[in-house]
Amino acid sequence: xxxxxxxxxxxxxxxxxxxxxxxxxxxxxxxxxxxxxxxxxxxxxxxxxxxxxxxxxxxxxxxxxxxxxxxxxxxxxxxxxxxxxxxxxxxxxxxxxxxxxxxxxxxxxxxxxxxxxxxxxxxxxxxxxxxxxxxxxxxxxxxxxxxxxxxxxxxxxxxxxxxxxxxxxxxxxxxxxxxxxxxxxxxxxxxxxxxxxxxxxxxxxxxxxxxxxxxxxxxxxxxxxxxxxxxxxxxxxxxxxxxxxxxxxxxxxxxxxxxxxxxxxxxxxxxxxxxxxxxxxxxxxxxxxxxxxxxxxxxxxxxxxxxxxxxxxxxxxxxxxxxxxxx
Length: 327
Prior knowledge:
Blueprint: H1 5-30, H2 45-52, E1 60-62, H3 68-73, H4 78-86, H5 118-133, E2 139-144, H6 151-162, E3 167-173, E4 176-177, E5 180-181, H7 182-185, E6 202-206, H8 210-225, E7 231-236, H9 254-261, H10 265-274, H11 280-303, H12 319-326
Parallel strand pairs: 1-2, 2-3, 3-7, 6-7
Antiparallel strand pairs: 4-5
Helix pairs in contact: 1-2, 1-10, 1-11, 2-8, 4-11, 5-6
């Protein structure tokens, strides 16, 4: 599929934003400026980008604990994201959600989720809403390889296929569920094969090639908009870091690491641009644009205030809090 220069530029900007946001998050976490857990998306940028560039603002996505990349690719505000990681009041969830719970309904971002496989059920709800309202909206559901062993995955695939819901299930197969390799937790090689169980297309692509992801996602999303039902798209990729910051990833073989780092999606796509009408200055200018955006996001987060203690239970619901409020 031939892509025009504007789409290629857009994809590079999204990929570079994800990479730079995550590298800064990595460093800031190490400095103690970001509390809690951080699960970085470094190495998987081509997946979120290749899929999201095919979506509209009114389309939906559901995300995971490793969700920064999805949110950036869907158009989330870098300032509000960074502020949320800092625990500041100006963040998307007023500093109370942190890294794993960023959402922006104005962009169709239904939320990152710390529960493995939880986004799959939410995607079915969003897809059913689109179908019921008879819109041509689509929901993309991002999830990891290990979550396809969960009951939520099979329940969601079954309902989506029966009702022909406009959902694209995107499996980001980075070959590890925390520290367990896919070879140890599944007997199959291609997770895409599981689509056959539900009578829907199952497609496996190189998840480090953003153009391959784009082509497959574009077709699956167009199919969903036409009312032809869901697709299972497996993107084979690799996370460069540990499961979370602080995990040294010693379970990953050295040779495997080297092989995948050589297939880093960013320099790979940069080389593609240089071979397809972009100059080195063009790429450098895009890098500068992103660097300035990230610097502004960090400044915004740094200068924002922490939530007041009096607001601790505002916008938060639990049975215990409601009991206290009722006294």
